[in-house]
Design goal:
CATH class of the largest domain: Alpha Beta
Protein name: Branched-chain-amino-acid aminotransferase
Catalytic activity: L-valine + 2-oxoglutarate = 3-methyl-2-oxobutanoate + L-glutamate; L-leucine + 2-oxoglutarate = 4-methyl-2-oxopentanoate + L-glutamate; L-isoleucine + 2-oxoglutarate = (S)-3-methyl-2-oxopentanoate + L-glutamate
Shape: globular
Number of domains: 2
Radius of gyration: 22 Å
CATH topology of the largest domain: D-amino Acid Aminotransferase, Chain A, domain 2
Cofactor: pyridoxal 5'-phosphate
Number of helices: 7
Modified residues (N6-(pyridoxal phosphate)lysine): 234
Family: Belongs to the class-IV pyridoxal-phosphate-dependent aminotransferase family.
C-alpha cells in the first residue's frame, strides 16, 4: 500500500488539518487540569481507499505487518488533547529537535486482540495495560490522559480493523499504543507536547514454529535495570541497551538473556519477559516463584495473571490440567543464580519459564552461566513443557480466546 501523508484530525468528509508543532517553549504543568482530556465522542474516521490483503495466518511472524489504519491524537499545552482520528496508516513528520529524538521521551504498551470463540473481538485485561501506560507517562513527565477514554478508542480501532484478527491458534492482533514527546528544542526539560499513536499488527507466535523451549545466558556483567531506575516502566529507552548483549548471547548459542542483578546476582527478567521458577518440595507440593517488583522488574500483565491463577489453584478452583489437590506455594522473592545452580544439582528444580504478552509463556531448557561455560539443564515433558507451564499457558490462552469464560476477556464491541 502506498504511503499516506499524516494528517490530524482527519474528518469523515475528507477535510483535514495538517500537523503543526509549535516551536515555543513551555513549562508543562501537570496541575493544569482545565485543558481538554481525551474525548472519544470527538473521534473522526477516514477510511483508506485501498485495503491491503490480509495474509494467511500460517505466514504470519511477530510484528512485521501493519493493518490499514492507525489512531492518532496530539497534545499541546495550549489546547490539551486533540480530537482523536482513525485514518490510513502512513509515515509521520517529526521535527529533528523533537524531545523524542533528542531525549528518548518515548513510552509504549504491548497488548493483543483475539477473535473469541463467540466471534467477538476481545482484549485481555486491558485495564492493567492502561494503568501501566499512565504510570510510564508520568515517569517521563509526559502529558496525563484518561486511560478509560484511551481504551475506548483502542476498542473502536480494533472494530474498524477486525478483519485483520487471525483466528488460528497462537495468532493474534498485536496492539502498540505509543506516546512520544514532541517539544521542540534542546534542554533537558519535560516535553510540553506529545503525540499518541496506536498501530496494529497481525502476528503469529513470537517464537516461530512449534512452541519449544528456549535457552538463556545468565548475564552478570551488564545490568538491564537497577533500583530507582526505569526498569519497572515500559519505556523505549529500556530496550536499546539490551540489544548488543542479546546479540552476544546469540553468538554463544543462546536464545535470550537471563538478566541478573545485585551482589548475589539474583534473577531478573528473561529477555523482555518475566521469569518464573518452579521447585519441588519433599511433600509433593510445589513452589512457584517470580522475582519481586522492586523497580527493576516490569509489572507484566501476563506475570500478574500467572500469579492470580496459581494463587487461586485449589480443589474448588483448580487450573485445568493440574491435580486439584496439588498445593502451590506462590512467592515473590529473589533467587540468586548460585541458589538456582544448587536447586538444579539437588534435583529440586522442576521448571523455569518466561511469560509476557508477545510470547505468552515459553519454557526454558538450559541456562549458561559463568566464564567456564557451565550450564543448568531443566528437563521438561512433551515439547519441553513442565506440568505448571503447560497448564498455565493453556488456561491463559483459553481465557484470551474466550474458550473459557472470564472477566479478564473484554469484548471490544461493547462500551
Amino acid at each position: 500500500m502506498a504511503p499516506v501523508a499524516l494528517e490530524t484530525p482527519t474528518h469523515i468528509n475528507g477535510a483535514s488539518t495538517p500537523v503543526s508543532i509549535s516551536k515555543k517553549a513551555h513549562a508543562f504543568d501537570p496541575a493544569t487540569q482545565h485543558l481538554p482530556d481525551i474525548d472519544p465522542s470527538k473521534l473522526t474516521i477516514k477510511l483508506s481507499h485501498e485495503l491491503a490483503t490480509v495474509p494467511a495466518p500460517e505466514t504470519l511472524t511477530f510484528g512485521t505487518i501493519h493493518t490499514d489504519h492507525m489512531l492518532l491524537l496530539t497534545f499541546s499545552p495550549e489546547a490539551g488533547w486533540s480530537a482523536p482520528s482513525i485514518q490510513p496508516y502512513g509515515p509521520m513528520s517529526i521535527d529533528p529537535m523533537a524531545s523524542c529524538i533528542q531525549y528518548a521521551t518515548n513510552i509504549f504498551e504491548g497488548m493483543k486482540a483475539y477473535m473469541g470463540a463467540d466471534g467477538r473481538p476481545r482484549l485481555f485485561r486491558p485495564d492493567l495495560n492502561m494503568a501501566r501506560m499512565k504510570r510510564s507517562a508520568d515517569r517521563l513527565a509526559l502529558p496525563p490522559f484518561n486511560e478509560q477514554a484511551l481504551l475506548e478508542l483502542i476498542k473502536k480501532l480494533i472494530m474498524v480493523e477486525k478483519r485483520w484478527i487471525p483466528s488460528a491458534p497462537g495468532c493474534s492482533l498485536y496492539i502498540r499504543p505509543t506516546m512520544f514527546g514532541t517539544r521542540i528544542g534542546f534542554g533537558v526539560t519535560p516535553s510540553t507536547s506529545a503525540t499518541l499513536l496506536i498501530i496494529l499488527s497481525p502476528s503469529g507466535p513470537y517464537f516461530p514454529g512449534v512452541v519449544r523451549p528456549i535457552s538463556l545466558y545468565a548475564e552478570s556483567r551488564v545490568r538491564r535495570a537497577w533500583p530507582g531506575g526505569t526498569g519497572g516502566h515500559k519505556l523505549a529507552l529500556n530496550y536499546a541497551p539490551t540489544l548488543r548483549p542479546t546479540r552476544e548471547a546469540s553468538q554463544q548459542g543462546y536464545d535470550q538473556i537471563l538478566w541478573l542483578f545485585g551482589e548475589d546476582d539474583h534473577l531478573g527478567e528473561v529477555g523482555q519477559m518475566n521469569a518464573f521458577v518452579v521447585l519441588k518440595r519433599d511433600d509433593g507440593s510445589l513452589d512457584v516463584i517470580t522475582p519481586p517488583l522492586d523497580g527493576t522488574i516490569l509489572p507484566g500483565v501476563t506475570r500478574h495473571s500467572v500469579l492470580d491463577l496459581t494463587r487461586a489453584h485449589s480443589p474448588e478452583n483448580a487450573i485445568p490440567g493440574l491435580p486439584a489437590d496439588l498445593v502451590l506455594h506462590v512467592q515473590e522473592r529473589y533467587i540468586p543464580i548460585a541458589q538456582l545452580v544448587e536447586y538444579s544439582e539437588t534435583g529440586t528444580l522442576a521448571e523455569v519459564f518466561g511469560v509476557g504478552t508477545a510470547a505468552v509463556l515459553v519454557p526454558i531448557n538450559r541456562i549458561g552461566y559463568g566464564e567456564e561455560g557451565k550450564e543448568i539443564k531443566i528437563e521438561g515433558g512433551a515439547n519441553g513443557f513442565g506440568p505448571i507451564a503447560r497448564a498455565v499457558r493453556e488456561e491463559l490462552m483459553a481465557i484470551q480466546e474466550a474458550r473459557r469464560p472470564s472477566i479478564w476477556s473484554v469484548p471490544c464491541d461493547e462500551e
